[in-house]
Specification:
Layout: E1 7-11, H1 28-39, E2 44-46, H2 75-81, H3 102-122, H4 128-137, H5 139-154, H6 165-168, H7 172-181, H8 183-209, E3 213-219, H9 227-231, E4 246-250, E5 260-265, H10 269-274, H11 278-287, E6 293-297, E7 304-309, E8 319-322, H12 325-336, E9 341-343, H13 351-359, E10 364-367, E11 388-391, H14 400-406, H15 410-420, H16 427-437, E12 442-446, H17 447-450, H18 483-492
Parallel strand pairs: 1-2, 1-12, 2-3, 3-6, 6-9, 10-11, 11-12
Antiparallel strand pairs: 4-5, 4-7, 7-8
Helix pairs in contact: 4-5, 5-8
Length: 511
């Protein structure tokens, strides 16, 4: 039985939800968005990585590959739990409705989460057992993460390699003493993770009841300044002080003469293989407690990855190094069974990468914004296969309207019109129809495209140093004139099972 059914859905990170505390969260608007998906016949909600962000606010450079982002915790739900009061939240600043201003937002949430924890700690008899059991069940990552965050706060947020050496390099006596002297702060960070898990799990159950699958995102590499690297130095290429000796990136290409120097430390795959990739097995187990489907970002790194000496300022002087290959996925399947994994296979992809993807029947990705230049382009609809996920665009692209207005040249416009057989009047809905009718089992649209928004609503511009990850939609936007057309296209191209028996005329036709 296929792990994927014919469906469509929306890409929207929870930070982009409305709400009065400056950032989208797991409260009322998350549930209202699930209702909106169900009401408009969508079956998938795709999110970006959910981990705790750090400098730059990128969900792809998080402080942990296992933890949740405490800024997504619904403060209103903490009122319902009795750990905050309405009066506690009456002082919420007048945050922007359409952008996340991360500095003030993080400060405000930290203050309220700390207050809620104090209330919990003072009178937690009814929940202590559940909290303790959860901590015990997640101890393999939680204990190190909570200590890491406690120490990071104590040292002004500095990277762990800049901490005192006994703590940076995890001298056993120093770590034992740190756990003892910071026990209450450690417990608070454990509590925040428990609350995040409780709120996310409740949202996931609600989504499931509404027929919505949650689609997550798992970056192949982790941040150097993370609990993962700090607590598992032997699994990464680091020197005696904990600094990376080689780092990840991609070589020079059409988009950049110097390539991309990401800076993530690289895995010691030889050592990971020795213990059966135990860290990765735990990571997969953790992610599938939060989502139903997951995309592996930069999948090609499992076949081969670009290794850059850490002292290099660009990615030019690197080399391709073999990844763990098929052996890794055989072990994962043996331990966990077949998993609903999407392979992010964008960019320059070799035959070997495609063979690894296809050997394990992992769906790849097709981005329609990249399609319109020549008939052999694999992203054109006639080159799609059933086992793939089609996107109008991704979080790293402009919105479709912004793309059309600012990036598309005359040759692309002519090719697209010639291919589709008509002049393009509405590029947004043109791509949505193309994606909906594709043979691909899944079609995903960023919410910005459904709403017809321009480049002002772009989520991320790669290489842009600031201002990314901030877009939010406002409360009025979901009451959009396009909603009936979205449900109709889903029925027309049979992407929602419970619509299949409807007759023509039973669903809206006009957008």
């Amino acid at each position: 039985m296929s792990l994927f059914t014919r469906s469509s859905g929306i890409l929207l990170h929870p930070t982009s939800l409305p709400g009065r505390y400056g950032i989208g969260d797991l409260g009322e608007w998350a549930y209202r968005f699930v209702d909106w998906l169900a009401d408009n016949a969508q079956g998938v909600w795709q999110v970006l990585p959910l981990g705790p962000t750090s400098y730059g606010d990128s969900p792809y450079q998080t402080l942990s590959a296992f933890a949740g982002n405490p800024n997504l915790i619904s403060l209103d739900r903490l009122v319902e739990a009795g750990w905050l009061s309405a009066e506690d939240l009456a002082d919420a600043p007048d945050f922007p409705a359409d952008r996340v201003d991360y500095g003030p937002v993080i400060q405000y949430h930290d203050t309220k989460l700390h207050l809620a924890y104090e209330r919990f700690a003072a009178d937690s008899a009814r929940t202590t057992r559940a909290f303790e059991d959860w901590c015990d069940h997640n101890a393999t990552w939680l204990d190190d993460y909570a200590l890491f965050i406690a120490l990071k706060g104590e040292f002004g947020g500095r990277p762990w390699v800049e901490w005192p050496a006994p703590l940076a390099l995890r001298d056993p006596d120093a770590i034992a003493q740190a756990r003892e002297t910071r026990a209450d702060l450690i417990r608070e960070h454990q509590w925040r993770q428990w609350v995040f898990d409780q709120q996310w799990s409740a949202l996931r159950r609600y989504a499931s009841e509404k027929g919505i699958r949650l689609f997550g995102d798992l970056p192949i590499f982790v941040a150097h300044d993370s609990a993962d690297v700090w607590a598992n130095r032997d699994l990464f290429y680091l020197d005696e002080k904990g600094q990376p000796t080689v780092i990840a990136g991609v070589p020079p290409d059409y988009f950049s003469e110097t390539g991309q120097r990401w800076g993530n430390p690289l895995y010691r795959w030889d050592r990971m293989r020795e213990d059966g990739y135990a860290w990765w097995i735990r990571r997969f187990r953790a992610v599938f407690t939060t989502v139903d489907i997951v995309r592996i970002d930069h999948f090609r790194g499992f076949e081969a990855y670009w290794e850059i000496p850490a002292e290099e300022e660009t990615a030019v002087n690197g080399q391709w190094v073999p990844g763990p290959g098929a052996h890794f996925f055989h072990v994962v399947q043996r331990e966990l069974g077949e998993l609903p994994i999407i392979a992010e296979d964008l960019g320059v992809i070799t035959r070997e990468v495609e063979e690894l993807r296809d050997q394990f029947e992992l769906p790849g990705m097709k981005v329609l914004q990249f399609a319109w230049n020549k008939p052999t382009n694999p992203f054109l609809p006639h080159n799609h296969v059933v086992n793939c996920v089609v996107y109008s665009g991704t979080h790293d692209n402009n919105t479709t309207r912004g793309w059309w207005e600012e990036e598309v040249d005359d040759n692309t416009r002519r090719f697209m019109s010639d291919y589709l057989g008509h002049e393009i009047q509405d590029p947004v809905w043109t791509l949505m129809k193309v994606g909906m009718r594709s043979v691909a089992h899944t079609f995903i649209m960023p919410l910005q495209d459904v709403l017809g928004l321009g480049s002002e609503a772009r989520m991320n511009t790669p290489g842009k140093p600031a201002g990314n990850w901030t877009w939010r939609f406002t409360e009025d936007m979901l009451n959009h004139r396009a909603n009936p057309a979205l449900a109709h296209l889903t029925w027309l191209y049979q992407r929602r099972a419970d619509q299949q028996e409807k007759e023509y005329g039973d669903v809206a036709v006009q957008k």
